[in-house]
Each structure stands twice: as C-alpha cells, then as structure tokens.
C-alpha cells in the first residue's frame, strides 16, 4: 500500500506521512555523529566516520568536514553524494557573493540560501529530499563566531 505514496514527495499517505522525507531522515539517522563546540576564541568541528561495510578499504572513506570558504566550514551526516551536491552549491553561492560584493558572505545568508534549496527539493515534484544534515561553523564581521 505504501508503494503508491513513496515515489513522490508531494503526495501524502492516508496517515499523513511523506515517505520520501522519512527515508531522508532515516539516512541521516544512520550516519556518524557530528559535534560543534563554541569557545571564547574560536570554534571546533568534529565528525565520526563510521565503517559500515567491513569490506570497504579505508582509502575510500569520504570526508565528513568540508571547507566552504575562508571563514566557514560544515560537517555532514547522511548520504555522501547529497553532501557533495550541497557543499558544491554552497561554495558557488559564497564565491558569487564575494565576486559581486568584494566581501565574504555572512554566515546567516549562506545558511538561508541552503535552507531554500533543501526546501525546494522537498516541496516540488520530480525531486527527492536531500538525505543529509549539515552543521555549520563560521565567522563573519556581523556576529563573530
């Protein structure tokens, strides 16, 4: 019965559930832990890399922490290919802002842009929700760390 309702993100099941969103949340739940710590003079970002498949070589593990620009980074949990798509998009947004305004993008503005992208993939047909969660660290001249 659920098969009729889990192929699209815009169709609710009779119970009021969006199965594609639940699948994305499940992928995030199986990922390793990400931790961010705010100190007086900086921030720390740590991520756990889980070896889910015993036959995978250590060399093929993907990174869980991405540098977005000189002042921002993020840690990811979930589907690695989704993380790569989103972090590449974030880097493009940050570079476009730098090119246009000659100053780094404020952290809040970059996070808002990402939220808009993720919402669009959940709300409109023909796309699936991203199965990745991101934890940001950054510094900007408005808010500091």
From TrEMBL:
The keyword Transmembrane does not apply. Residues 5-27 form the Proteasome alpha-type subunits domain. GO terms for biological process: ubiquitin-dependent protein catabolic process. SMART domains: Proteasome_A_N (SM00948). InterPro entries: Ntn_hydrolases_N, Proteasome_alpha, Proteasome_alpha-type, Proteasome_asu_N, Proteasome_bsu_CS, Proteasome_sua/b. Its main location: cytoplasm. It is found in: Cytoplasm; Nucleus. GO terms for cellular component: cytoplasm; nucleus; proteasome core complex, alpha-subunit complex. Pfam families: Proteasome, Proteasome_A_N. Keywords: Cytoplasm, Nucleus, Proteasome. SUPFAM superfamilies: N-terminal nucleophile aminohydrolases (Ntn hydrolases). The 26S proteasome consists of a 20S proteasome core and two 19S regulatory subunits. The 20S proteasome core is a barrel-shaped complex made of 28 subunits that are arranged in four stacked rings. The two outer rings are each formed by seven alpha subunits, and the two inner rings are formed by seven beta subunits. The proteolytic activity is exerted by three beta-subunits PSMB5, PSMB6 and PSMB7. Component of the 20S core proteasome complex involved in the proteolytic degradation of most intracellular proteins. This complex plays numerous essential roles within the cell by associating with different regulatory particles. Associated with two 19S regulatory particles, forms the 26S proteasome and thus participates in the ATP-dependent degradation of ubiquitinated proteins. Belongs to the peptidase T1A family. This is Proteasome subunit alpha type. It comes from Neovison vison (American mink). The lineage of its organism: Eukaryota, Metazoa, Chordata, Craniata, Vertebrata. The gene is H0YLC2.
């Amino acid at each position: 019965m659920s098969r009729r309702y889990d192929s699209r993100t815009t169709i609710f099941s009779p119970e009021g559930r969006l199965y594609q969103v639940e699948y994305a949340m499940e992928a995030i739940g199986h990922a390793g832990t990400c931790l961010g710590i705010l100190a007086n003079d900086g921030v720390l970002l740590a991520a756990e890399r889980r070896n889910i498949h015993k036959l995978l070589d250590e060399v093929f593990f993907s990174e869980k922490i991405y540098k977005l620009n000189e002042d921002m980074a993020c840690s990811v949990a979930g589907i690695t290919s989704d993380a790569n798509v989103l972090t590449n998009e974030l880097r493009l947004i940050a570079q476009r802002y730098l090119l246009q305004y000659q100053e780094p993008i404020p952290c809040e503005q970059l996070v808002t842009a990402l939220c808009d992208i993720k919402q669009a993939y959940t709300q409109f047909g023909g796309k699936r929700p991203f199965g990745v969660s991101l934890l940001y660290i950054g510094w900007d001249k408005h808010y500091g760390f």
